[in-house]
Design brief:
This protein has about 700 residues and is an alpha/beta fold. Helix content is about 30%, strand content about 20%. A seven-stranded mixed beta sheet has the order 5-4-18-17-16-6-7. A six-stranded mixed beta sheet has the order 24-26-25-30-23-27. It has a five-stranded parallel beta sheet with strand order 10-9-8-12-13, with helices on both faces. The radius of gyration is 24 Å and the shape is globular. Bound molecules: iron/sulfur cluster (SF4).
């Protein structure tokens, strides 16, 4: 018989940063199906993840009761997890016992070893309110700024370059502006896979005459729609982009008025790119000089040119330099501050923008107010009703630095909410060993992730559809996510758990409803001050900046000035810096990591979504067919990939879009956790690791 939903709840997709609005159709506390809604970012469209990736919430692996590690279950970073044998390692506990142990022991470590002995990872999968409250707990309850989340692993370098260059880490124009652009550059991003609905808007724009330039070492589906596809050699972004800027300067295509009236530092940039002729850079980046010249002219002279980029730009030891070049391109040509222009780093998770805005980063309070800024510190001390001088003026440690600090014995206890560093951190064997060596690890999650497996206490939390909160998409659009179903068993809302941990660390917080947290946020964050809970309830989405109640919100920013002290943007020159680990005779190939369409991040949700798992059930590596042939293999063969840090086996898939000599592996497969192989070398400015390049050797079998 036809199953008819008894309830429809409007919400947003839990996956990527596009932020598609959708409706959950529910019967008897079960999500039956999902439909797209007419939201500003999707207008009814959904991709395969949004449409079919919801039944993970009902998966039998859900954590439904607090768990405490058995005394006879030693921790080791070298483990093979069996989710069906959880009770060999953990025992059930009451909430009271679990919270007393979790929070009590964190407080004990703080009191015995000092405030810097604790650290916390929040999550871009959580709501703005959860991110805000979590960072407040670390700053006030732990007493340091040792709080970070996966933004460190995705766009930290973009944000550093944007803050430095134009004074704001968010996008200048929404994705939908591609439909107003004459030229769109997509570089180091594969939106067809990672931001599928955004990719449909790009394809629509192309159909209406926009010239699309795709720049990427891998040929993606989007390249089929491109006016020019520039398959540059991995790791040569700066060489290619500086060559384009050289052409723009040499041929007098700069926007002199814009440079003079709205920027500083152009002379240094011009001097720097003088040496980067297209002819010299062509053999380095693999793009011929004429194409470099043609695309530079096209970008500079169009009525509106827009740049969108992804992790292919940001996840390098020169990630900040890569982004500096993109910013400089837009500034020197005045291609910013108008509809159909600008800079758009495509955000990966549905709330990575919001979590960063809410202060889930070690150097900034909410709204990017630096912790070392006395005025900002005093403001938050007042706002949070703390005695003057309470908050730490020193930036905290970042994700990879926290793992190193555990090794060094300075960080001894952690609270991790919704992140899975045992899968997502670079050199994951090292990260797992570090997590296993902690005196105390508290993990709050919906599944027994690889990270939770190393915990002393596991606190069962709520899945996306089980809670209400706000989420900020890649466009700066704050959207309302609404609870559609009840959590299973004894699982509890994350906001409740954070408050209970806070209570055991000496804080008396009494937030009764998520709207109270949002209200506190907006009074601390000028950029969202005008967004009220009632308005979100009514309109579902409001774009920031929205400084006063009633403001419509600004889709395009930097129209008149840049939010820097001088009001002017700043050029920052960049030179070529090689990857930290280059191929050699022992490890002759290059590893590139990323995501695939059906799975999302470490796979904890999508691999438990039946439809998505059926589509992509096994770990795969994408290899150029000629490389596969030279290795003596064929599609479907098992191959072994090894770096200086680890080894995995998985299936080979022929992919003519892969560059010769480089292999692409998604990072969602626990049975072939590719981050065991990646390099933890960091970009010096943003501390983002080099996920997009390390040396490997590959064999069949
Ligand atoms: Fe969800 Fe992103 Fe797909 Fe939209 S494009 S349905 S937000 S995963």
């Amino acid at each position: 018989a036809l199953t008819v939903p008894d309830k429809q709840v409007d919400s947003v997709c839990p996956y990527c940063g596009v932020g598609c609005q959708m409706t959950y159709n529910v019967k008897d506390n079960k999500i039956l199906f999902v439909e797209g809604r007419d939201g500003p970012a999707n207008h009814g469209r959904l991709c395969v993840k949004g449409r079919y990736g919801f039944d993970y919430a009902h998966h039998p692996h859900r954590l439904t009761v607090p768990l405490i590690r058995r005394a006879d279950a030693p921790k080791s970073g070298d483990f093979t997890m069996d989710p069906t044998r959880v009770m060999d390692v953990f025992r059930e506990a009451t909430w009271e016992e679990a919270l007393e142990y979790a929070g009590g022991k964190l407080a004990e470590i703080r009191d015995n070893f000092g405030k810097k002995a604790l650290a916390g990872f929040g999550s871009a999968k959580g709501s703005n309110e959860e991110a805000y409250l979590f960072q407040k707990l670390v700053r006030v309850g732990f007493g340091s700024n040792n709080v970070d989340h996966c933004t460190r692993l995705c766009h930290a370098s973009s944000v550093v370059a944007l803050l430095e260059g134009i004074g704001s880490g968010a996008v200048s124009n929404p994705v939908m502006d591609v439909t107003k652009a004459e030229v769109v550059i997509v570089i180091g991003a594969n939106p067809t896979v990672n931001h599928p609905v955004a990719a449909t808007w790009i394809k629509n724009a192309v159909a209406n005459g926009t010239k699309l330039i795709v720049m990427d070492p891998r040929r993606s589906d989007l390249a089929r729609h491109a006016h020019r596809f520039m398959q540059f050699k991995p790791d040569t972004d700066v060489a290619m982009l500086n060559a384009m800027m050289h052409v723009i300067v040499e041929e007098g295509l700069v926007d002199k008025d814009f440079i003079e009236s709205r920027t500083i530092g152009f002379d240094e940039l011009r001097a720097n790119v003088a040496e980067y002729t297209p002819e010299k850079m062509a053999p380095i980046c693999g793009i011929d000089a004429e194409t470099l010249r043609y695309v530079a002219r096209l970008y500079a002279t169009s009525k509106g040119s827009m740049i969108l980029w992804g992790m292919g730009v940001s996840q390098h030891v020169h990630g900040t330099d890569n982004a500096r070049c993109l910013i400089a391109l837009s500034l020197m040509t005045g291609q910013i501050g108008r509809p159909g222009t600008g800079l758009h780093p495509l955000r990966g998770q549905n709330n990575v923008q919001g979590a960063s805005d809410a202060g889930l980063i070690p150097m900034m309070y909410p709204d990017y107010q630096h912790v070392s800024d006395e005025k900002a510190r005093a403001g938050f001390e007042k706002h949070w009703k703390l005695a003057p001088g309470t908050l730490d003026a020193n930036p905290g440690l970042t994700v990879v630095e926290i793992m190193d600090a555990i090794d060094a014995g300075t960080v001894r206890g952690m609270y991790i909410m919704g992140e899975n560093p045992a899968m997502s951190d670079p050199d994951a064997n090292h990260a797992r060993a570090a997590l296993a060596s902690l005196d105390h690890l508290v993990v709050q999650d919906i599944f027994l992730t690889e990270t939770a497996y190393l915990a002393d206490v596991i606190l069962p939390a709520t899945a996306f559809a089980e809670k209400t909160g706000t989420f900020t998409n890649t466009d700066r659009l704050v959207q309302m996510g609404r609870q559609a179903i009840d959590p299973p068993g004894q699982a509890k809302p994350d906001l409740w758990i954070i408050q209970e941990i806070a209570r055991r660390m000496g804080l008396d917080w009494q937030y009764k409803h998520v709207s109270e947290v949002f209200d506190e946020m907006r009074h601390a964050m000028p950029s969202i001050a005008g967004i009220t809970w009632d308005r979100l309830e009514r309109d579902n989405a409001v774009m920031y900046p929205c400084r006063k109640e009633g403001d419509p919100g600004e889709a395009v920013v930097f129209v008149e000035d840049f939010p820097r002290e001088s009001g002017r943007a700043r050029f920052v020159p960049a030179d070529v810096i090689p990857a930290a680990e280059r191929p050699d005779t022992e490890y002759p190939m290059v590893l590139i990591t990323g995501r695939q369409l059906e799975h999302w991040h470490t796979g904890s949700m999508t691999r438990r979504a039946s439809m998505l798992d059926a589509l992509e059930p096994d770990p795969v590596a994408l290899v150029h067919p000629l490389d596969l042939d030279e290795l003596g293999g064929k599609p479907g063969d098992v191959i072994t990939i090894e770096s200086r840090r680890g080894r995995i086996t998985l299936y080979a898939r022929a992919d003519a879009g892969s560059p010769r000599g480089a292999i692409f592996v998604p990072f969602c497969y626990y049975e072939a956790a590719i981050n065991r192989l990646t390099n933890a070398a960091l970009d010096p400015f943003a501390k983002i690791p080099e996920f997009k390049y390390c040396a490997i050797k590959v064999s069949v079998g």
